[in-house]
Design a protein that fits this description.
Layout (H helix, E strand, L loop, with lengths): L34 E3 L5 E3 L6 E6 L23 H10 L1 H6 L2 E8 L3 H11 L5 E3 L4 H6 L3 E4 L2 E4 L2 E6 L2 E6 L8 H11 L2
Parallel strand pairs: 3-4, 4-5
Antiparallel strand pairs: 1-2, 3-8, 6-7, 8-9
Amino acid sequence: MTNPHDPTVLPTGIPAPQDDGAARHLAGLMLPSVPLPATNGTQIDLSRLTGRTVVYIYPRTGVPGQSPPDGWDAIPGARGCTPQSCAFRDHFAELKGLGVAHLYGLSTQDTDYQREAIERLHLPFPILSDAALTLARAIRLPTFTVAGMTLLKRMALVIEDGVIAKVFYPVFPPDKNAAEVIAWLQASK
């Protein structure tokens, strides 16, 4: 029997998010210059990266043994950040083979919190922090609020030379997001 607060396991019956139209404006958008701190100690400006970049965006990673915010599992699209990250980890080599020059996770958690997830989950790529919501506000990323935290709704972006080429939104189930991105990359060769 699994612990109901095990962030690596998606419980059955979690609600699927519906497309609320909050990401429709993103496809074709040229990213503004917004440097974000990364877990590898660098500052990453997505607008300045050349080639193909994939950024998967998630609300917040959980920590084993710590309960999520009250009502977390009832929020459509909230649960599944750790499985989403693990799927991108597991498909990292395949994404690179499909021409992805840069892969990042992105959340509003601070870099120290994110470093714990990087180490625990053995992620071979950095996670970016938008704790001040600078990028979220600049490009109007969809958010939600719970327990006093403003969090990003789950999505993935394929960025080509600073322009958003593809938006995956809403994402469900989160553990299949990497495979969905791979399928799109294969089809768009």
